[in-house]
Every structure is written in C-alpha cells, then in structure tokens.
Amino acid sequence: GNSVTQMEGPVTLSEEAFLTINCTYTATGYPSLFWYVQYPGEGLQLLLKATKADDKGSNKGFEATYRKETTSFHLEKGSVQVSDSAVYFCALSAISSGSARQLTFGSGTQLTVLP
Amino acid sequence: DAGVIQSPRHEVTEMGQEVTLRCKPISGHDYLFWYRQTMMRGLELLIYFNNNVPIDDSGMPEDRFSAKMPNASFSTLKIQPSEPRDSAVYFCASRKGQNYGYTFGSGTRLTVV
Prior knowledge:
- The complex is a heterodimer of chains A (115) and B (113).
- Chain A is mostly beta strands.
- Chain A has strands spanning 3-6, 11-14, 19-21, 23-26, 32-38, 44-50, 56-59, 62-65, 75-77, 86-95, 101-105, 109-114.
- Chain A is globular.
- Chain B is built from no helices and eleven strands.
- In chain B, the strands form two sheets. In chain B, strands 2, 4, 5, 6, 9, 10 and 11 form a seven-stranded mixed beta sheet that branches. Chain B has a four-stranded antiparallel beta sheet with strand order 1-3-8-7, with no helix packed on it.
- In chain B, a hairpin with a 7-residue loop joins strand 9 and strand 10 (103-104).
- At the A-B interface, strand 6 and strand 11 of A face strand 5 of B.
C-alpha cells in the first residue's frame, strides 16, 4: 500500500535558521507529492507540490524536490521566520481503492521558530 | 469563494449522544473527503464521495459512524452513539476532478465527555 514517513518532531529553530524536514514515501505507480501546512486552529493548506520525478515545488521560500531514486520529498527553507511556526504534513496522491486518487498523509512535524 | 465550510467549529457532547458534523464543499468540486485527526493516529481518511456517491468507506471505524451526501453542496458525518474515543478534529475536504489539489475546511473539534 501507499505510505509516507516523515521526520519526527517537534523541531525548534531560531529565526533565520535553515530548515529541513525529511519525507520518504512508498507507493505503487507514479504518485504526486505534496507538502501541506496547518496553522493552529486551522485546516490544512497546500504549501507546494510536485507531480513527477525531478520536479521542484516551491512556495513562500519553501522548496522540495521529487526524488524518485531515493523516494524522497524533503522540505527545505533557507531562512525561517516566526510566522512559519506550524505543523507540516508530507503527503502523496496515488490511485487507491475505488480507482480514484487519494491523499495519504505523513504523521506531521511540528515546527516552532523562536525570535 | 468561501472555501469549504464546516460546522460547528467546536462540539462538546456527552457519551451516548448523537453528533452530526456538517460540510459544504466548494461549488463545482465533485469529490468530498472526511478525515479524522488525532494525536495518536494522525490524519485518517474516513470516507470519500464522488458526485455525491460514497466510493470508499473502509476508513469508517465502526457502524456508529455514518456519512451522507444528499446533494452536491452538503454532506454530514454522524456518530451515534458517541464515545470519548471519538474525540478528535474532523476535517472535510473537497476536490475538483482527479488532478487538482484538495481544499480543506477549518475542521470541527469534537469532545465527547
């Protein structure tokens, strides 16, 4: 089946530090990969995505590259801000039961950025 | 666009009571998903609909859970009877077609005491 494994949290960084959150996946076929962000008390928001190998998704200074050879989609940001504090979810979308693409989520990584 | 709208935002109920959570998807979206989020289990897909028809309900934990989508603009998730272990945040999400991203609602935080 499909699964996503992401770095355990929580992660605490100082403002302007470099961020990496690791994500690896297992899937049949050719999944699309996503990072979602959840701010306190809110639903999940799409942060970035990549639909094929070697694609790089980017948004708001965050980047992730779809690496088929290592089945990875690590999230990076060169300089984090306090406002980046949130829970980050890696996810994949692949054909599953019912013949429709569904999202499978990782367990989430809590990021706290200190001023 | 108002996004995916869920109600209520918070619900506190006593064990054994019936709970109904509501979701209004984005107009034009033909897929609707119900997820449950807990600290222990993360995000779990409970059920999803395509064009108002339930396609996969294998994630529904027990017969106490049921979901309906009577029309394209409304879905409900019902728990009867509720139990303390049902306490979680329940999210609804909608999507247009197979290759577009999901839009999530703000969730309903359910507490069963």
